[in-house]
TrEMBL record:
InterPro entries given in the database record: Endonuclease_MobA/VirD2
Name recorded for this polypeptide: Relaxase/mobilization nuclease domain-containing protein
MobA/VirD2-like nuclease domain sequence ranges: 25-122
Disordered: region residues: 418-481
Origin species: Leifsonia virtsii
Amino acid sequence: MGSNFRMKNAHGSDTGIALRTATTPADVWHCSLSLRADEGQLSDEKWGAIAQDFVDRMGFTEASGKAECRWVAVRHGLSTNGNDHIHIAVSLVREDGTKASTHNDFKKAQDTCRDLEREYGLKQLSSREHGLGERGIKPAEQERARRTGAVEVDAHRLERAVRAAAAASLDEGEFVRRVRRAGVLIRPRFAAGRDDVVAGYSVAVRTKHGTAPVWYGGGRLARDLTLPRLREGWPDSPLSAQSAVDEWKATSRNPWQYRPVAPGREEHEPAPAMWQQYSKEVRQLREQLRSIPVEDRAAWAHVARDAAGAFAAWSQRVETTPGPLAETSRELARSAQIKAHTSKPKKVSMGSAGGAAMLLMQAASQGQGTMAEAILMRQLARLTVAIIDMHKAIGDEACAAQISRTLNTQMATVASRLPEVPRKGQTGPATDVDERAPESVRIAQTGLSAPRPGSPLPTKVEPAKLYKPATGPDQDRGIGR
């Protein structure tokens, strides 16, 4: 996350500002202010000044016009992740015996941190400034991953599976089936007193026999993965609603033994002609974005969610451990984390990268990556550049720079292991799938294959073809620019 200065929550995760109320007595208020590991360290004097200003503005000192609360700021070195930070503990009993109020302290602390970031010349946390933000990870989750030898915490694995399935699905019923096909347990949360109205869902990683799974609600994985938010991207009809209820009921009986009620297209490998169709759809979506105002955060969130879902689906299929595709998906997903009240249903006329997600999730499983994959990747990368441009246009330079770095490093790694897409004028297929380029269509229609065993992606080195930043400040450039 693009911030120099922020608070950590009760679980110790880098999620912007939050309060540590879950693990402290009611008469003590506790929080921590932290820097990212790559942002260096502040002097004791500067931390002291920041701490004093913070408690003043939170209303815990005489600056509030009331009796002072006793408080202490402790700095005891870097965290295990290398973050410079301080802890602040405040006694809520004032010197005159009255109790300090913590009403609306979350928002107040957020606003205070934003002001102090400006005043002390620190980069502002992008999620706080622009209403974005991702969920944090609890120490218990990290410990469980360490204990079991997992390469990532369950929440991240589940988020990627759910995100890929949501992007690849045409409706809610297909979503349930795809999540299950990804090897993830899923169960519904029915509305109170009903067994035909689903209000939410939860997912879990399959565990060994006798070990209880740990369930995560969709909203715990990410803001944009709650069921109401996912439904904004699917058509609403009586037929699709009934199909979804049937699948939810089937998995609610026994998530471990769920069998699809009405298997659909997820059971079949996509037809070769779909590569041309969905590559073209991603290109058309990118062109359509030129007419969408940057202030329309709901529309851009749908685009970011689709793009993140496509990369998540690709990662699900070819990366045995989280790699550049998973990292790209997580970075793009942050752009979809808008607040619930600003979210709106997806417009019917708006294009989608969902078809690309479906292709990347279901492609054949032998051989090496083909030109079809390279062409589709190029379109997805150009779509990512459009998202970067949106963040720049709204003044969110930190987020734009972070996505640019990801595109420059992570996606360059992917591009280097795919066939090179010839530039215009070169012998061979055209850059994009186009009816005017029969050879390109023929190659694209050969389909996509997964990598060889032992390698997360096919091999061929040509990283500079994907992304080359221009010189000068804030002059990131993307593919096809």
